[in-house]
Design brief:
seven-stranded antiparallel beta sheet; Protein Transport Mog1p, Chain A; alpha+beta; 9 strands
Length: about 180
């Protein structure tokens, strides 16, 4: 009797396990996308212009620019992210900035969109790498993040670009501690 209960319990466990993990080929095809959950992120906050952003830790932060307007993150393998801000001294609208970005002949734009206070432009650059640029305009400051990466890393970077773009926060009140 005890053996029968143990065998029935083992069969029930096996069936439940298979119903959760065994699937048809169409589901398996959906899961062929590489996992980026193993990618860790850190954050960078710019005290001068009050913005923050997440960046993948495999990109090393380079020294902040002398004037404190931003930073470059790079791994030395043709993968780079830069984030910076500047005062909108020419009093340009988001439409002006968007048009100027589209008129720069530094590659082929494959996607672009412009909304109330931001725009995104992406495509391939002259080095035949993918690029992504998001610019946000507030009353008097232009905030920009750019990324450049090899074409063979597109799948990995699709999710990275999405996470970085979503994490880009501007207009923050940042206080610095004096030592």
């Amino acid at each position: 009797m005890k053996k029968t209960i143990i065998i029935l319990f083992a069969l029930a466990l096996g069936t439940a396990s298979c119903s959760n993990n065994c699937s048809n080929n169409s589901t398996q095809k959906e899961t062929t996308k590489p996992e980026t959950s193993s990618i860790s992120y850190d954050s960078y906050t710019n005290p001068r212009f009050g913005f923050s952003i997440m960046y993948p830790t495999f990109l090393s932060p380079q020294p902040e620019s002398e004037n404190g307007d931003g930073r470059v993150f790079s791994n030395g393998k043709n993968e780079e992210m830069s984030v910076f801000a500047s005062n909108n001294v020419l009093d340009q609208s988001i439409e002006d900035l968007y048009q100027a970005c589209q008129n720069i002949n530094e590659g082929t734009i494959t996607y672009s969109t412009q909304k109330d206070n931001w725009f995104v432009v992406s495509g391939t650059n002259l080095e035949n790498n993918y690029f992504y640029r998001k610019t946000i305009l507030t009353d008097d400051v232009e905030y920009t993040v750019t990324m450049s990466y090899p074409k063979d890393k597109k799948q990995q970077y699709d999710e990275i670009v999405e996470k970085v773009a979503e994490s880009f926060k501007v207009g923050l009140e940042v206080t610095t501690q004096e030592n």
